[in-house]
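About this split. The held-out portion is used to measure sequence recovery: a designer receives only the structure tokens and must propose an amino acid at every position. Recovery is the fraction of positions where the proposal matches the reference. Here is one held-out target exactly as it appears in the evaluation file.
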């Protein structure tokens, strides 16, 4: 009898939403560093300048996807997507997954992507596809009794090392991280005074951390080429290691120009709001960046990230996924061109290490002294916190 005959099939796909932190990590209560006057493409409107939540950065909420196999095993994953994502999962994507062999992930991905191409391609549809894909990899690991990183070819290093994203790189250095990425607070609409404040903050942090600690700026799509060039030039003698996501994701031409403009030795990075191998092919072939930063919960999941990473490797470009907890750790540990990872400091003052998707996942690992050995529990090795109320709004 062929081994195929006893491979479990997918009995049901279920999608839920959750509010308050979790995978929609911008969905925090007040007073959190992650919503404190951070520059965005909306900063040109004063009414939307102080808080990203005012223009809806946390409008989606968390999407939880469960895939239940015919033997009762349940794989799950979480990403950003909320009710819209849940609707797409159950009303559209489920038809390409239910009844299929749990091993046929590539074919299910291809049908989910091509079956939604008329309204998807990127954005929320790719978040939803990513959620299903990650849940399928979790399920496969559980069925095989293996951590996902074993299914991806095994670890190329014993542990991961992390830089920390947050308001306090000085504290991150004390916690053992290899670098600190600051959110940029002021964009072009705040003129020369804003640029001066951006540089003053960086100078203060450089003073606090010394010369041998990475400092980066995350500009969250808020700048134009001229401002980003001037920021990079002014920050160069402060040892800015990279300037991240300076421009809107579709401005491939602007990124290529910025990369020609920045001082030699400074890196340009982007990609967290890009999706699929085609989007990253554009970034790579147009010479937009030195590091691509796909979010595995937004770019298409593990199945697509494998393709993106191979493309980047061929271009000698590093792949350092946007902070996405265990979903990227299991990938990064298996890739030579992913030498370090991001850890988003989700404590409101960025002064302690808390799980990134807090409070949604149980057993979610966190870096200790800036390092982490990826647990070898089956799948992604985490469980849903039963205290987090899941809702399933679209079942009627
Ligand atoms: C800190 C940044 O403004 C974003 O909130 C962050 O999610 C992302 O850009 C990152 O690279 O971590
Ligand atoms: Mg970023």
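Reference sequence for scoring:
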């Amino acid at each position: 009898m062929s081994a195929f005959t006893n491979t479990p099939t997918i009995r049901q796909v279920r999608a839920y939403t959750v509010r308050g932190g979790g995978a929609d990590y911008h969905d925090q209560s007040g007073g959190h560093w992650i919503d404190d006057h951070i520059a965005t493409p909306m900063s040109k409107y004063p009414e939307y300048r102080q808080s990203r939540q005012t223009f809806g950065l946390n409008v989606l909420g968390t999407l939880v996807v469960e895939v239940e196999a015919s033997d009762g095993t349940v794989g799950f994953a979480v990403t950003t997507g909320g009710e819209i994502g849940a609707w797409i999962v159950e009303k559209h994507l489920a038809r390409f997954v239910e009844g299929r062999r749990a091993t046929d992930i590539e074919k299910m991905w291809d049908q989910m992507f091509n079956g939604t191409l008329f309204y998807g391609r990127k954005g929320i549809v790719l978040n939803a596809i990513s959620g299903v894909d990650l849940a399928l990899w979790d399920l496969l690991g559980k069925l095989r009794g293996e951590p996902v990183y074993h299914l991806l070819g095994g670890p190329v290093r014993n542990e991961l090392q992390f830089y920390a994203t947050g308001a306090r790189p000085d504290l991150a250095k004390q916690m053992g991280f290899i670098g600190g990425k600051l959110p940029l607070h002021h964009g072009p609409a705040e003129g020369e005074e804003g640029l001066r404040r951006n540089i003053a903050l960086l100078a203060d942090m450089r003073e606090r951390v010394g010369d041998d600690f990475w400092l980066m700026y995350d500009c969250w799509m808020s700048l134009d080429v001229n401002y980003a060039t001037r920021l990079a030039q002014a920050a160069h003698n402060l040892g800015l290691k990279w300037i991240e996501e300076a421009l809107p994701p579709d401005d491939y031409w602007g990124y290529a120009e910025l990369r020609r403009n920045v001082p030699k030795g400074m890196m340009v990075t982007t990609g967290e709001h890009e999706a699929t191998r085609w989007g990253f092919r554009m970034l790579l072939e147009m010479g937009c960046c030195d590091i691509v930063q796909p979010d595995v919960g937004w770019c298409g999941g593990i199945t697509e990230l494998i393709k993106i990473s191979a493309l980047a490797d061929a271009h000698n470009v590093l792949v350092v996924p946007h902070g996405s907890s265990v979903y990227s750790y299991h990938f990064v540990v298996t890739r030579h061109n992913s030498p370090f990872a991001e850890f988003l400091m989700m404590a409101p003052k960025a002064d302690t290490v808390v799980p990134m998707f807090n409070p949604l996942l149980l057993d979610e690992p966190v870096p200790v002294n800036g390092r982490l050995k990826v647990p070898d529990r089956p799948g992604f090795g985490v469980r849903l916190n039963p205290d987090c109320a899941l809702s399933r709004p679209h079942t009627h």
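Annotator remark: The longest helix spans residues 123-144.
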